[in-house]
Design goal:
single chain; 89 residues; alpha+beta; 2 helices; 5 strands; globular
Length: 89
């Protein structure tokens, strides 16, 4: 069995309709990539346009240019994937 890569974490992505999906990411991935993966897991194909969505964590909209690690995400964190018109009120 290969050694566990400590840079990999599992997040729970929650959609606007209350559905959830686990996503495995590397802590060095930019949140823009995390968003694409979350949309794919939540909604399948065709995947919604990532430009129309935000990631919300701890009540704050995250900067998609940051890495998962820089945003404070750790194994088991739950992120909300929300349309911008919802997340930005």
């Amino acid at each position: 069995m290969p050694p566990k890569n400590d840079n990999n974490i599992t997040l729970t992505a929650a959609g606007a309709e209350g559905d959830t999906a686990p996503i495995k990411v590397n802590v060095h991935q930019h949140l823009s990539q995390v968003l694409r993966e979350a949309l794919k897991e939540l909604y399948g194909s065709p995947t919604p346009d990532p430009a129309e969505y935000d990631i919300v964590f701890g009540g704050a909209t995250l900067d998609l240019d940051k890495t998962a690690e820089d945003a404070g995400l750790v194994d088991g964190s739950e992120i909300a994937v929300l349309p911008k018109d919802v997340s930005r009120g």
